Structure formats: C-alpha cells, structure tokens
Amino acid sequence: MEDPYPFYDRARREEPVFYSPALRMWYVTRYDDIVTVLKDPARFSSAGAVNVPLEYTPDTRRIIQTSFLSHSSLTNNDPPSHTNVRRLVNAAFSSIDRLDLQERVRGIANELIDGFAGDGRAEFVKQFSFPLPMRVILSLLGAPQDDVARHKQWADDWIKLLLVQMSAQQQAETTARLLESERYWLEMIERRREQPGEDLLSELVELSDASPEPIEPLQMVNTCAVLTLAGHETTTNLLGLCLRRLLGMRDLWAKIEKGGAPIPRIVEEALRADTSVHALMRTTTEAVEIGGVMVPEGEHVALLFASANHDETYFADPSRFDPARRQTKRHLAFGGGIHTCVGAPIARMETQVAMEMLARRLPGLRLTQGQEFRYLANPIHRGLNELYIEWDT
Ligand code: HEM
User: Which residue in 60, 231, 280, 338 has a CA-CA distance of 20 to 30 Å to 121?
Assistant: First the structure.
C-alpha cells in the first residue's frame, strides 16, 4: 500500500484483467475496462459486493437478517431499489445550497485548528482529517457533534462484521452496538419527522414520506449509516494524502499560502494522483467478457480506480502531479455510472476549504522530519495511519 502504482502499471501492461487466487477476486486495471463495467450494472451487480464468506453464530446470523444490516440502500444495492433510494437522496442533496454547507465546513475547520494552532505541531489525522469530515456529515444529517466517537465505533463495527472473522464473544459485542446504532437512527428519523430541522435527513424523510415509494424504516437507517460511513473515511484519507503531497512541493505550497494557487484544480489532481478509494467491488450476474478475458458468473470483480487514474491512455506522465493538466476531472476517483459518488461536491469543497485554511492559519506549515509514512492495511481505502506536521507559532 505504500506505493502500489508500479504494480498497477505492470498489470495494465502485462495482464490488465487478472485473477488473484489469494483474494479470490478478479482485478480490472485499465480505465476503459473499468468504465465499461461501471456502465453495466445489470451484469455487474453491486448487491453483496462486500460479502466475504465468514462464520457467524446463529445469534449473529439472526441479527443480520432482521436488522438494518440486511437492507441495501446505496452502495450495495441494484436497480430498481437503488434507483428509488438514489432518486430521493439526490433530491435531498439538491437542498444543500440552502444549508450553508461551506460556512459549516469553515466553522468546524476553524474550531479544530483553534484547538492546536498554538502548539506548533499536530498529528493531522487524529486532530483534523478524521474529525472534520465526520463532523461535517453528522452536521449534514442533523446528528449531534458530540456523537463522533460513537459513530466511529459503529462504522468500524459494521466493516469488521462484514470483513473480519471474529470470535463468538466479539460478534455478540459488535452486533449489540450495531443494534444500538439502529435504535439511535430510528429515533433520530422519528424526531426529524415530527420536528424537521435545517438538515439533509429532514429533507430526505419529508421527500420519502411524500413519495409513492417511500424508503422503509430499516432501509432509511441503512441509508444514514452508509452516508456516515461513505462520508468520512474517504475524505479523511484524501485530506491526508493531499496535504502530504502538497507539503512535499514547497513552491506550490508557497503559492497556496499567498492565495495565488488554483486550489480546485490542485484538489482535482490530488483525487487523480492520490486516489483514496482505491478499489470497489461488483459481482458478475452471468459469464461476461472484460477486456478480452472471460469471467464466470458469480465472481467478485474489483475495479481499481487508482490504476485507471494512472492509465497513460488518458493521463500523460501519470506519476507527475500537475494541476495544470488538461481534463483534470476525467479521473474516476468518485466512480461512475449509477453509483457515482453522491458526496463528490461535498468532498471537493471540504478538501479545498481545508487546504486553503491550513495554509492561511498555520504559517510555515511543513512535514515533521524523520517520520515514517505508514499506510492503512486496507484493500479498498488508501490513506495514512498518521501524518505529523509542524509550523511556526
Ligand atoms: C474524497 C472523498 C470521497 C471519495 C474518494 C469517494 C468515492 C466514492 C466512489 C468511488 C463511489 C462509487 C461507489 C461504487 O461505484 O460502488 C462513491 C459512492 C458513494 N459516496 Fe463517495 N466518496 C467520497 C466522499 C463522499 C462523501 C463526503 C459522501 C457523503 C456526504 C459520500 C457518499 C457516497 C455514497 C452515499 C455513495 C454511494 C452512491 C450509490 O451507490 O448510489 N462520498 N464514493
């Protein structure tokens, strides 16, 4: 994970669609092949795409089958159910302009920076890049900001339950906490129904109630949980990768400090060059050919967005960080097709605001010398475990 790009380059050249027996998964590495898959949700299903064969106790199995965990809303759903939820979520997101989101982001970022500006140094992930997107998504959903730690625990619990083999005891503890999160969201949804606030969840509940096909309660819980999950770690990782990259380019950072740099272009290039969602999965619903390779029915297929974003067919000299390159937005960092990231405008804005404010408020910001950059051991998300920074006080 430290530098997977040479491996991706080789895969694109030598075996652009390959099978990994260790991960029991097909990998698609070229830009065009990935776009073809994204445009074909009928043959490449998103339902159950993150299901790994694990041993569950009878109690865990029962809880999974009867709780919000058995429901699909966005990421792991297919049409027509996905179409309905996505239509309502899109409509709710279109109200964002009214919610003064940029002001909220600035407010939260300022508060976080106030907390450490006088120290002259910080661990960026813990003190800024994790809490910022988490607090932004909670604020959007109208959930209390003090609940950050609980949501982090619930997000970790959900991922672990899906991907990690746990003991019976661990499963019991994890599912108990996930049922608590279900009650939390059910109560929150009811409160928004009775007393709508200036938030996305209030909009979504209202739109759903008025729809001929409303989102049912546990599917609504699943939607809230997916938004919280998809809305934080993705952006946390981009913020860390982007800051590390920019602090390594002193001339560019100096320009940003002086307010003379094209920040939207820089963030777009960071999304391309340092893609934070490296891969996402699909399952084939029939035998299907991808890039000349026959993939049987029922197989897991991973789309390596990070590799597509370094495909030299579309991005000349792909390892060069060049905010001036043409068609910066052509990257696939936010996926494509019916599952295209619903939070892309928010993620872009958060990262732009963050870079601008860090440069303005922390003079002489630089990477702490001698640190080792360690990356998450995660096949989907690429990000730094921690990032130490310093500045002049
Ligand atoms: C840098 C930040 C982000 C990155 C790189 C990113 C990336 C992605 C990608 C690649 C997908 C496509 C999934 C697929 O094809 O299966 C996706 C979907 C999604 N993203 Fe993001 N995302 C980011 C931020 C956000 C934020 C801030 C939110 C919420 C506010 C969000 C909510 C979602 C949701 C709900 C989906 C599922 C959409 C659907 O299935 O219809 N994302 N994201």
Answer: 231
